[in-house]
Specification:
There is one protein chain. The protein has 207 residues and is an alpha+beta fold. It is built from three helices and 14 strands. Strands 1, 2, 3, 6, 7, 9, 12 and 14 form an eight-stranded mixed β-sheet that branches. A four-stranded antiparallel β-sheet has the order 8-13-10-11. The protein is globular, with a radius of gyration of 16 Å. It starts with 19 loop residues before the first strand and ends in a 6-residue tail after the last strand.
Length: 207
């Protein structure tokens, strides 16, 4: 069965335990999603991601750009980075998502995967600056473009929860999800179309 023929159903929590990932389904019309995809492909300041892993410097094929509140600096993947001033369309989309999920965000990491061979391996978004005083982490993830397989893996039991993220679909990772689960975007040789993923986050500058 081709699951892409069906719109994703809204789910309160896709995880069986130790976390909360809410699936909001498609939050935009198909035409609006198409417009955002075309606009973001051509108007965001895409550049290869720079990371330090095990003391080594790397540039990724995947392209990224950070936007956020003015003059905000942060650490990510071992690098000190400066947020770019909000793109107006991205900022309006942020406000829309904040109303839907009931949480404020002060930054957005935008990711561009030009084809199915560009992916992200297993990781958790557990940087100290993302953790609220109540130990919760809230990250809203909005997808545009090619449908891609996304998967969660429990850090102890190794249980996996796969998802197919579609054009205009929003999921929100909450609570202790980053503490107990890793997640990854899987590769696929069959996919030749681009995907954009917007991850809205709140960074606590005093962390």
């Amino acid at each position: 069965m081709n699951l892409e023929l069906f719109s994703p159903e809204e789910r309160t929590n896709v995880l069986p335990c130790d976390g909360e990932v809410q699936d909001y389904g498609l939050i935009l019309s198909a035409s609006d999603s198409d417009k955002y995809l075309r606009y973001f492909l051509h108007h965001l300041a895409w550049q290869p991601d720079e990371v330090i892993l095990h003391g080594q410097y790397y540039q990724t094929e995947r392209k990224v750009v950070w936007y956020g509140d003015e003059n905000y600096q942060y650490h990510y993947s071992g690098m000190q980075k400066q947020a770019q001033q909000w793109n107006p369309a991205l900022f309006r989309l942020k406000q829309h998502i904040e109303k839907l999920v009931g949480h404020s965000f002060n930054s957005c990491l935008a990711n561009l995967y030009e084809n199915g061979m560009q992916a992200v391996g297993w990781h958790s978004d557990d940087e100290p600056a993302l953790i609220a005083p109540d130990q919760q982490v809230v990250i809203a993830s909005l997808s545009f473009g090619a449908s891609r397989k996304f998967c969660f893996q429990h850090k102890s039991s190794q249980a996996k929860v796969p998802m197919l993220l579609q054009h205009g679909q929003l999921i929100v990772m909450r609570g202790q999800t980053q503490r107990y689960w890793k997640h990854a975007l899987m590769k696929s040789v069959k996919i030749t179309e681009p995907r954009i993923n917007l991850t809205f986050r709140y960074f606590y500058q005093n962390q």
